[in-house]
Amino acid sequence: MTQVSIPFSTKNGPHLEALRARHVADTYDEYREEGPVSTVDHTPSESAPDAQKWADVQASDDFVELKRRLLKFVFPVSGLFLAWYLLYVLLADYAHGFMSTKVLGNINVGLIFGLLQFVSTFVITTLYVRHANKNLDPLAEKLRNEIEGDGK
Amino acid sequence: MNESSPILNISIFGVFVIATLIVVIRASRNTKTAADYLAAGRAFTGPQNGIAIAGDYLSAASFLGIAGAIALNGYDGFLYSIGFLVAWLIALLLVAELLRNTGKYTMGDVLSFRMRQRPVRAAAATSTMAVSFFYLLAQMAGAGGLVALLLGITGTGGQALVIAVVGALMIAYVLIGGMKGTTWVQIIKAVLLIAGAGIMTVWVLGKYGFNLSSLLGAAVDAAPKAGEKLLGPGLQYGKTGTSKLDFLSLALALVLGTAGLPHILMRFYTVPTAKEARRSVVWAIWLIGIFYLFTLVLGYGAGALVGPDKINAAPGKANSAAPLLALELGGPILLGLIAAVAFATILAVVAGLTITASASFAHDIYANIIKKGQAEDKDSEVKVARITAIVIGLVSIGGGIIANGQNIAFLVALAFAVAASANLPTILYSLFWKRFNTSGALWSIYGGLFVTITLIILSPAVSGTPTSMFKNADFDLFPLSNPGIVSIPVAFLLGYIGTILSKDKADPAKQAEMEVRSLTGAGAEKAIAH
């Protein structure tokens, strides 16, 4: 089984204590009672320095760039495949004659378009994985290490 | 011609049950904490989870329902599978990784992250249970029809007994194995299902010289009533303007529903990182896509080799197309194997749904609302999850007996409509819209849920036509059986209006935390070492 070990470093900034305590608590239940018990209205890791830390990261150049790279890919591509799917559905729904036009033996336009939906799904999946591995993961990892490691 | 042999079918199924129970018991030995029980210790790999997702997703409706729909309605059945597949891109691009990074066990974790916890969790749990319940009903109803065909049990009492046995087995899986055991059942079942469908596909194609065109021609020849229309769209949905609109509505719910199905979302918590969540979706997309290509061949194959008249005359009607094709190809043994796989499918999906609904109750309602977060990750959370699983199991046995004979694909389509209307808008808004607030979340969840269910109750699927649930009543004020075309935009709109009308401000600190965590994976729940 794969495991991700919890990074323990001795150089903890004070604002990271809460975050670290949370990881430990999730792994070893009993520690939770000693740690800060979360309030009703918010998920854990709620303390002033922490909140500042998240806001700082959110405003950092690296994070802005990561967000831009993600959204620049996923929003247009989502729009594109939804439009292509909708076009296909509308054709199948309202253009029976066109979709039933035979192209090769008994294989008609509708079947080819349908199979092309499969192809486009597989292609987009592959492209996204490539984009994420190359352009998103390294930056996300860098930021994650900054936040979880000894910070800036 | 070969005959179905109930004893053989039961024996093969029995072997599956015993084998999976052994796996479940072995897998459960390390199950101690809530993260073990509800998220399998987050220790599955991407490929393992991807196979399990395929197992969760390729329900009886996909296998029996789509193959049957293609056999009888030709191209229109194929349209279902395309919507089901393309939908995964939304999960891949917009939801899976961000959700894995911000949540813990349930959809409610993500939706309530930066909102007021108690009201939003209550809403998320409500819609989780609603979707899971519709989906459960579909599976249990399918079990009845399948049993009629495979075991030769045609009496309602006998079918009810078998539904009860399925329910009892499912409760056992969930109680003993938790998420880990359930995941292994899904993996075993997915491998069997995809392999079985693959073998049959090659077999069918082999009979036609691996020429798809000849297969299609044979299907047309075997269906004198439908004829050439079998190959083009419109046979089922193209009759009137209303039915065309109904199809458009269905297509929307299919493509937008998947990424809002709680039992699929919950699977992303069983892997250690967002990257593994991405890998699982990629595996799932390939497996599901290939499987749907198989069903295309199987559907037309059943039409060509078994013929629509024989399928319509069989006890399970359209749902029996795939099993009858197996009988035609490989005799009673292949039928027994395919029947066992189909049964295993129902069992595994039902177990996955049950653990999702019970996790939502235990984690969102019990630990975070009733116990105000104090019971989170305690033993009592697991205990409540187990008790809830028993209750849900019993309710779904009852519901399955009542819903026996309803159309499986239709019930699943309803689950997708609720997921697309109540869940997806709220998930997307909370991940991507900074201003989204508690009031917007409540409006989109409850509003989406209310509009969808109201439209379903007022639809011809429930009353007013000979095929309705209540044939003699007549309150079908809404003309479409599928509410998605209205309910999905309305839910998005309600989320927007609820947000801007409220004095409630979004919490910028929590928004910053959520956004940074969702994109970077900082502070995400880690895998558990044993």
Automatic annotation (TrEMBL), chain A:
Question: TM spans, by residue?
Answer: 73-91, 111-129
Sorted UniProt keywords? Membrane, Transmembrane, Transmembrane helix
Q: Which domain of life is it from?
A: Bacteria
Tell me if Transmembrane is a UniProt keyword of this record. yes
Q: Which InterPro entries match?
A: DUF485
Tell me what this protein is called: Uncharacterized membrane protein, DUF485 family
Automatic annotation (TrEMBL), chain B:
Please give the start and end residues of each transmembrane region.
6-28, 49-72, 78-99, 147-175, 187-206, 247-269, 281-302, 333-363, 384-402, 408-429, 441-462, 482-501
Record's subcellular location? Cell membrane
Superkingdom field = Bacteria
Q: Provide any one GO MF term from the record.
A: acetate transmembrane transporter activity
State if Cell division is listed as a keyword. no
Keyword check for Endoplasmic reticulum, yes or no. Answer: no
Q: How does it sit in the membrane?
A: Multi-pass membrane protein
GO annotations of cellular component type? plasma membrane
Main subcellular localisation: membrane
BP terms from Gene Ontology: plasma membrane acetate transport
Record protein name field:
Cation/acetate symporter
Record the organism: Lentzea jiangxiensis
